[in-house]
Specification:
The structure holds two protein chains of two kinds. By secondary structure, chain A is mostly beta strands. Chain A is 0% helix and 48% strand. By secondary structure, chain B is mainly beta. In chain B, β5 and β6 form a beta hairpin. The chains are: A mainly beta, B mainly beta.
């Protein structure tokens, strides 16, 4: 079945450091790929998405490229801020006529001033 | 416009009790999905409703049920609560099933004692 694998966490960085969070997936067909972010005490917010191979999603300085050949969707940001501290989830789907998302386990990012 | 509204935000129950959680989707959104978030299992899909019909169901026991009303509002119910049901329950809405973007609510945090 469909699955998403995220790198193990947590990750702690200093402000202005470069961020990479790895995400790989297994899926039948050609699902859309997403990064969601969860701030403390809140629900999930869509950070960015890509709907087909080679698409690049971007938002708030974050970027991720849909790599079909490596089945990856790694999240990057050139210079993180303290306000980026949150839990980041990679997800795939939906496929077909349903809205089900398959999530990775999430990774906690802490950014130090 | 108003986002996805979940009530209650926090609740405490004891083993054996039942609980009902409510979700009001974004106006105009007709598909509602539910997810369970726990530290151990991460985010797991519970079910999806559209036009008052369950379209998709995750791998949860029959104690977990839901419904959707004609105004698209949805409720989920968990009967005979177990300690392991302690979780954040997230609701997400989308225009239609298979829509590419889900908008999540802030969640209902259930603690079972």
């Amino acid at each position: 079945g469909d699955s998403v694998t995220q790198m193990e966490g947590p990750v702690t960085l200093s402000e202005e450091a470069f961020l990479t969070i790895n995400c790989t997936y297994t899926a039948t067909g050609y699902p859309s790929l997403f990064w969601y972010v969860q701030y403390p005490g809140e629900g999930l917010q869509l950070l960015l998405k890509a709907t087909k191979a080679d698409d690049k999603g971007s938002n708030k300085g974050f970027e991720a490229t849909y790599r079909k050949e490596t089945t990856s969707f790694h999240l990057e940001k050139g210079s993180v801020q303290v306000s980026d501290s949150a839990v980041y989830f990679c997800a795939l789907g939906p496929t077909g006529a349903n809205s089900k998302l398959t999530f990775g386990k999430g990774i906690t990012l802490s950014v130090r001033p | 416009k108003a986002g996805v509204t979940q009530t209650p935000r926090y609740l405490i129950k004891t083993r054996g009790q039942q609980v009902t959680l409510s979700c009001s989707p974004i106006s105009g959104h007709r598909s509602v999905s539910w997810y369970q978030q726990t530290p151990g299992q991460g985010l797991q899909f519970l079910f999806e409703y559209f036009s008052e019909t369950q379209r998709n169901k995750g791998n949860f026991p029959g104690r977990f049920s839901g419904r959707q009303f004609s105004n698209s509002r949805s409720e989920m119910n968990v009967s005979t609560l177990e300690l392991g049901d302690s979780a954040l329950y997230l609701c997400a809405s989308s225009l239609n099933p298979g829509a590419n973007v889900l908008t999540f609510g802030a969640g209902s945090r259930l603690t079972v004692l």
